[in-house]
Records
---
Amino acid sequence: MFSEVAGRIWASTRIGEEFHAICACGGRFSGTASETRAVALLERLLGEATGTGVVREPHAYRGWTRGPAAVTLGEQRFAAHALVRSPATTAGGLTRLILDLGRGTTEDFERAGAAVAGAIVLVRHEFMVGSGHFHRRRKYDIARVRGAAGFLVACNQPGGLLVTGSSGDGGPGHIPAAGVAFETAAALALANGAPVNLEVAGTFAERSADNLFAELPGESDEWVVLSAHIDGHDLASSAIDNASGLAAVLALARAVRHLAPRLRRGIRIALFNIEEWALLGSALHLAGLDAADRRRIAFNLNLDSVAGAPGLTALTSRIQGVEAFVRRTAAAHGLEIGIHSPFMGNSDHANFIRAGIPALRLCAGFGAASSNMRLLLTPGDTPDKVTAHQLKEAATVAAALLLAACTGEQPPAPPLDAAAVTRATAD
Ligand SMILES: [Zn+2]
């Protein structure tokens, strides 16, 4: 069964064509025309791939439109990019002392002590697809809790690249936050302690975003959810993150659809929206399921940033049985699949785990800090970073895991206090 599915994946050129078509929609930032185009395109492509109807699941959320941002130091004015849902600064911007906190770890903030209060703090973005990384949102949260007036995160790659990402939800207590280039941070670091002006614009509005679903029923009423997120950021075309996952899901759907009626579990394809907004689309979807719906989901296989660098890794989040399931599947088909055990709450699989459903995320280039994965969330996340070969490899590895999840024993569910477990082990 697997070799037949793999054959269909490798014999077709559509995976590369669809990847480029998705990227041509633009970065797919939720609430923009680019996202609207992408949802319409994916609705059509998913219908073609599965040969079945596609359901749009709308969710209301507090949307946000990004305005211009800049940092001014004396006569020098630097480009900046507001982090998602940053509060706007008032007219004339926010003028405060710049405080360079280096990487921006808990220890860096502690060392700075009272100087954080009232300052515009400067921290560094880090390579995200690996262990030992201290997430931007944690740095941001420490900054605002300690009374910082503004937050700047600098790209860790030279080349004039801005960086983006989420911050808070823009509610009370949140502070203006923006990404700047590596070179801007170098200039600001030399002026550490000097006054700088931060301007951030953005407006909030009630919006709706659609998740897309298509189902390939199996023999029972159980499901394996194959997911990828639609939305991205507006600095580039969000090619690696996550047009790669979308293209792989479509290719896989096309390759397995005729087999689904013979599988023990059906395949529910979920393309989630507003993922870059703290995983909102999948959270709202799962919150809308009742206990019986959730019990019928045996597993979630989430494809996020699955091409752009060699090698695929399963992020297994210490869920009992999942690591062994990946090893068994890899060995059965002679595939190489890396395993990273600690919980990684960095994509939609985390919400499935929180809902008590076993899940894993597949991603490319894990731990390869010099690979193209270093360009996620920057203007460098463009289609030229991804090859059709990598996309096919991702779809093949995903096919093996999907078929095993649809035919094998159910992996044990995470403990009922999964939310507490995942909070405790988040890195
Ligand atoms: Zn992603």
---
Amino acid sequence: MKKTMVFAISITLALVFGWQVAQGDDDDDWRIGQSWKRTADVAPINNPDYVEECGDCHMAFSPGLLPARSWKKLMGGLEDHFGDNAELDPDTQTVLTQYLLDNSADSSDYRRSRKVMRSLASNQTPLRITKVPYIQHEHDEIPARMITDNIDVGSLSNCMACHQQADKGSFSERDIAIPGYGSWDD
Ligand code: HEC
Ligand code: HEC
């Protein structure tokens, strides 16, 4: 190939990618090149062992909602997991830790994962998804009567109570129904 041709192709690619990255900041669903991610905001969970081991006491949280450093820390302290013992046998622990690291927010290009990462300073290692600034910010207008004072919800950690498709990685507003209140109009 001629040099000018290679140059022209590189420029075209750079423009297309640049445009997509620039569009990545807004919340609309219409972006081109994104239709393959249309239904999921974070990568859907594709590991049955993870769902079995980590989806017993609460929903299996998407790996793409926390950075690798958070999963590493959380998996290193399962014997005291938010007051519960969630210990695994060593083999399972190794395999699931690797699964979480491979699919963490910093290695995903799904849009909510990117937003999680962008909201965190590099020295922040939250052990809770609900402590991630982006997640906190998205919920700061929801009154307590709909969350903590709502017996069908209890806490913000209970994603599935309101986001009916959370287990499929979708947090889209059309899939939100707050128990006792219904859909959310802001
Ligand atoms: C024995 C029960 C149990 C098991 C098993 C368990 N957890 Fe938990 N987990 C909890 C409890 C209790 C909390 C705190 C819930 C709360 O504060 O509402 C929690 C909270 C979490 C949170 C923070 C949620 C938030 O508030 O943002 C994450 C992340 C998490 N667990 C990941 C895992 C992973 C990964 C596994 C599998 C290795 C796992 N859990 C297995 C009981 C469990
Ligand atoms: C009490 C119900 C409720 C719970 C529990 C809840 N959310 Fe939400 N969430 C909402 C509502 C309502 C909005 C829309 C807020 C707005 O647009 O102002 C929202 C917005 C979001 C958004 C942004 C969606 C968008 O379209 O921009 C994400 C991502 C999200 N929630 C993730 C989570 C995760 C992860 C959890 C669990 C750790 C969780 N939510 C728990 C009600 C809830």
